[in-house]
Amino acid sequence: MYKNFLKVDKSLVHGKGLFANTSFKEGDIIVQITGEVIDSEECERREDEENNVYIFYKNDNEFIDVSNNSYLKYINHSCDYNCDVDEDDNGNLILYAASSIETGDELTIHYGYEDIYEYCACVSCENKKGEAK
User: Fold this and answer.
1) Is 17:8 a contact under the CB 8 Å cutoff?
2) CB 99 within 8 A of CB 20
């Protein structure tokens, strides 16, 4: 589905990452975020019991688990992210370019929770190892 414009490869951020096979302009929709829609209770259970970190927040009652999505689960965190997530007019979550992205660039988002800083490996970390700048 994404083979023409996205690929998974080794990441300097963490393990594997999601990379652009084409360029994107700021605001371009990259892909719709698809996966299993789960409620908040199931989200908490998967995070706690399964250490599932491949879950996107949609609203207070709906979350999208992308752990079975062969591409989206590889998008890494960066404090200097180039992608963001939003809801379109039809209520679908979309991944879009928050800034210009060139062919070969790793796609990153800001995970949006403070615990990430303890393990953050990005160059521009806002709060390296939990210590305020």
Assistant:
1) yes
2) no
pLDDT tens for the chain, 133 residues: list them.
456 899 999 998 778 999 999 999 999 999 999 999 999 999 989 888 887 778 888 988 999 999 887 788 899 888 889 999 999 999 999 999 999 999 999 999 987 755 544 555 555 665 554 443 3
What are 106's two structure tokens? 């790793």
Q: Write the CATH number for 80.
A: 2.170.270.10
41 three-class SS: helix
Question: What b-and-e string marks burial along 50-83, b requiring 16 or more CB atoms within 10 Å of the CB?
Answer: eebebbbebeeeebbbbeebebbbbbbbbbebbb
Its domain, for residue 22, covers 6-34+69-130
56 occurs within a structural domain: no
What's the CA angle centered on 120, arms 88 and 87, to 5 degrees? Answer: 5
